[in-house]
Design a protein that fits this description.
Blueprint: E1 5-9, H1 18-22, E2 32-36, H2 40-59, H3 69-83, H4 93-98, E3 110-113, E4 119-122, H5 124-132, H6 136-161, H7 165-182, H8 204-217, H9 230-247, H10 256-266, H11 277-290, H12 297-309, H13 313-322, H14 331-347, H15 351-362, H16 373-381, H17 387-401, H18 407-419, H19 423-435, H20 454-466, H21 470-482, H22 489-502, H23 505-531, H24 566-578, H25 582-594, H26 601-613, H27 617-629, H28 637-644, H29 657-676, H30 684-700, H31 704-717, H32 724-732, H33 742-768, H34 778-796, H35 804-817, H36 827-832, H37 838-843
Antiparallel strand pairs: 1-2, 3-4
Length: 844
């Protein structure tokens, strides 16, 4: 890269040729000085010297003494040195003062050569930043600080010389306190003072790469009370990683305070999330080593751990061994050193050395947490030959902890034994947790009654499922059934549901296998029960669904003795329906018919939903009719939601007039069934969703008479009041206000205007009747919304101007077909068919 040159111009000329410079003596009164920038510190000092000279020239009198030839010779010598890039240690200002320099302001111009060879002019602030690595504000702050310190020291010296030693000492302490407040540095978690953090000594493009890191170091909110924030961690590594390449060219320019402060931020782990902590510590430690810095003991330990985590396991362990004399022998680092060794050696499989390190730690006078043995337990449990040693290590840890052993410690040990298939040890650890170590079941073929019951198993399974250890829970089910203790169907249904909620292919397969295992157990039970006492032929297990077995067609590894319940079928029905597995749902329905379990509305709803999604709406309605009529299943709110979604207007994009006409008839039939069925709303979700679905279905089918009757009926039977957003959606004909397409926005704006007009008309009539429209009661506001809805339906039907006597026949026919002709207006009938219960009514 070519050198960057800066011109110092004392005559306002932007360019002076070399020949003019050589004829400076006695010919050109305006001296042209060209100097090449070298070390930033020297350049800054030279600049200050020349500025002082320029100030003296400006302050000189108009009458100047004649220039001595010897002075001109010395001036020429100085210029020649500057041209050759030589900067003298000192400049005799009398030489510059005696030179023939014109009066007026001195114009100093600075230039820099860019990497592409072009020359650009710099401002004074840019020049200062480029040469010294400090921006204008920081440079000014340093200059101000220097002046303040110099003036204060001189004043204190004078006071001491005048005999005011005591007062000078008081002022000196006050000065130090004030200076610390004004120029305070960053404070780490151990209250380390890092001073004024700044990286300098870089210029040009290298300085620009470091600018963002310097900006981070100067941020006042980086560390507040010794605790960095999440953004501080991100910005710190972002700035440092961007500056690493530039810093590597001169590591010595980075002060120890900056390194320690960066380490404190990068290695932070308390209170904020730092997922890449070890990776960043590893990189920073390598850079500090490259810079020739000696890491502190705590930094060395963390660097060794970071090296291990980053995959350099053997190297990290070797470094740990070498540090046994320097770090392992110091009281302040003894515990951390050996705990790190136990962790690394256990994870690396060197269990013997890990045990020796643990013995050294536990045998010392230091206060040690015995939970460090958990890692050794894990390393011993994974090998069958050392299972017994793992158990002995657990018992020793339990003895050392005593009453301080927490439930979480038991859970961790149990999880380790379950993961290593040490089922007997896992069960014994859980028994220790439940009975405080007073019951020993190891080696027993028959478990005590206090353990061999579903209540005890249920507590263990609930704890494992709640902790997310689903595979461990399944192992417990299999192991305890071998011991003669079978889990209850409720507990297994919870495990199946937990597997399904993970939505992973492996767990979905496990859930399906266990559920069908339970279903086969139920079918076998029904088959054996049906045979009665007749045993004149060999017993045969009944399995009409062989392809529900594993793909190989073999018997499953685990034959569950627990029998499927209605909840088991419901869980699997919802699973198959949500995944669109219609064939699997049909198979499940076939098994359900043979299981001799009272059918539930939940399974019926899933069947209706699945058939509808599969394009078999007629089959879905047929199942509904069969299950409600022949099997006496009572429908619920979800049943009618599923039924209204079978209508073609809710399934097809393109409307078919013939299908829409059939939707009108079916919609009215569904509404009549809904009114006369014995069900109640059980949740606010269905309370808001069902009326919305009904109104939109009839709107899309253009059944305006049925829509008007449905609005009146739901008002009386559901206590339904249409909310404002629903009115706008119905007016716009779109089912959601969140779809921000251009067409939807236009429809919503038009619909909003229509609803406002209908509301204004209604309030105008109320005002004419003498009602205070500014203070409407809650019932009046509800009545207003219903009035707007009915008028909106008439607008949609283009019947707002049709006389009432012409509309009544259509409304009466709709009311009869919808089963509410004899109900609306009859208080006794309305109370009999109300679908909202007391607690839900209060909540709404």
């Amino acid at each position: 890269m070519p050198p960057r040159n800066f011109a110092l111009d004392l005559s306002r000329s932007s360019y002076v040729c070399q020949s003019c410079l050589t004829s400076l003596r006695g010919v050109k009164p305006n001296a042209q000085l060209w100097l090449t920038r070298h070390a930033s510190g020297l350049a800054r000092r030279n600049q200050r010297r020349l500025e002082v000279a320029a100030a003296k020239v400006k302050a000189a009198e108009t009458q100047k003494p004649p220039v001595d030839p010897k002075t001109n010779e010395e001036l020429q010598k100085l210029i020649t040195q500057l041209q050759n890039g030589e900067l003298p240690d000192s400049v005799d200002l009398s030489i510059l003062q005696a030179a023939d320099v014109p009066d007026g302001p001195v114009d100093v111009r600075y230039f820099e050569q860019t990497p592409n060879g072009q020359t650009k002019q710099l401002s004074t602030d840019d020049f200062n930043m480029s040469t010294s690595g400090l921006d204008a504000d920081v440079g000014k702050a340093i200059d101000d600080l220097e002046r303040q310190m110099s003036a204060t020291v001189k004043m204190l010296d004078r006071m001491e010389k005048q005999g005011m030693q005591q007062k000078a000492d008081v002022l000196r302490r006050q000065f130090k306190t004030s200076l610390k407040k004004q120029y305070k540095g960053k404070t780490g978690p151990e209250a380390e003072e890092y001073g004024l953090l700044r990286i300098s000594g870089f210029s040009g493009s290298k300085h620009r790469a470091i600018a963002s890191l310097n900006s981070f170091l100067a941020r006042e909110s980086v560390v507040k009370g010794g605790v960095p924030k999440q953004k501080d961690l991100v910005d710190c590594w972002k700035g440092y990683s961007a500056a690493r390449k530039s810093l590597s060219s001169a590591w010595q320019n980075v002060s120890r305070e900056v390194w320690d402060f960066l380490w404190m931020i990068v290695s932070w782990e308390k209170g904020v999330e730092n997922p890449n902590r070890m990776r960043h510590v590893y990189v920073l430690a390598k850079d500090m080593k490259a810079a020739g810095l000696m890491l502190s003991d705590s930094q060395q330990l963390l660097a060794i751990e970071a090296m291990f985590v980053e995959g350099w396991k053997e190297e990290a362990i070797e470094a740990w061994k070498k540090a046994v004399v320097t770090i392992g022998s110091k009281p302040e680092t003894f515990t951390d050193y050996y705990e790190l060794g136990v962790r690394m050696l256990s994870l690396n499989g060197d269990v013997e050395r890990a045990q020796r390190a643990a013995e050294t730690l536990l045998g010392s006078a230091e206060k040690v947490d015995a939970r460090i043995l958990i890692l050794i337990i894990k390393a011993l449990a994974v090998k069958q030959a050392t299972n017994e040693k793992a158990w002995e290590t657990y018992r020793r840890m339990r003895d050392l902890l005593g009453e301080s052993m927490m439930l979480e410690d038991y859970d961790e040990v149990i999880s380790l034994f379950l993961g290593a298939n040490c089922m007997e040890y896992a069960l014994q650890a859980f028994v220790d947790m439940m009975f405080s170590g007073t019951v020993d079941i190891r080696g027993r073929t028959r478990l005590p009654i206090a353990i061999s019951n579903q209540f005890f198993i249920g507590k263990w399974l609930k704890r494992l499922i709640g902790a997310g250890d689903l595979n461990g829970a399944y192992k417990v089910v299999v192991y305890l059934q071998e011991k003669g203790v079978s889990a209850s169907p409720i507990q297994l249904n919870g495990l199946i549901g937990a597997w399904i909620r993970t939505e992973t292919a492996e767990n979905l397969e496990k859930a399906e296998d266990l559920a069908w295992n339970m279903i086969r157990s139920r079918l076998n039970y029904v088959h054996m029960r049906g045979r009665g006492s007749s045993m004149d032929q060999p017993t045969r297990l009944y399995d009409p669904y062989p392809h529900s077995r594993p793909s190989s067609g073999e018997e499953p590894e685990f034959n569950c003795s627990a029998k499927a319940t209605a909840e088991t079928f419901s869980i699997m029905a919802e699973n198959y329906s949500s995944r669109g597995l219609h064939d699997a749902l049909e198979q499940l329905w076939g098994a359900f018919q043979h299981a001799a379990i009272g059918p539930t509305s939940f399974l019926m709803n899933q069947l209706i939903r699945s058939y509808s999604q599969d394009g078999k709406a007629d089959k879905a309605i047929e199942i509904y009719r069969d299950m409600t009529t022949n099997q006496n299943i009572s429908p619920d709110a979800y049943t009618f939601l599923a039924l209204f979604n079978t209508l073609s207007v809710n399934r097809l994009i393109i409307r078919d007039p013939e299908l829409s006409a059939r939707d009108v008839r079916r919609g009215r039939e569904f509404f009549a069934d809904m009114v006369h069925a014995n069900w109640k709303f059980e949740s606010p979700e269905t309370f808001h969703l069902l009326p919305r679905t009904i109104l939109f279905s009839m709107l899309k089918a253009q059944d305006y008479a049925g829509m008007l009757i449905a609005a009146r009926a739901m008002n009386q039977l559901f206590d339904f009041t249409p909310p404002g957003p629903l009115l706008i959606e119905l007016a716009a004909g779109t089912a959601t206000l969140r779809v921000q397409t251009k067409r939807n926005i236009a429809l919503i704006m038009e619909a909003n205007s229509l609803v406002d007009n209908l509301t204004r008309q209604h309030r105008t009539r109320l005002a004419e009747q003498g009602v205070d429209i500014d203070n409407l009661a809650k019932s009046q506001k509800s009545e207003e919304l219903h009035h707007v809805l009915e008028n909106l339906i008439l607008v949609k039907a283009k019947a707002q101007d049709v006389r009432r006597d012409k509309l009544m026949p259509h409304l009466d026919m709709a009311a009869k077909e919808m089963g509410v002709y004899d109900i609306l207006g009859d208080a006794e009938q309305v109370a009999k068919h109300r679908k909202i219960i007391g607690h839900l009514e209060d909540a709404l």
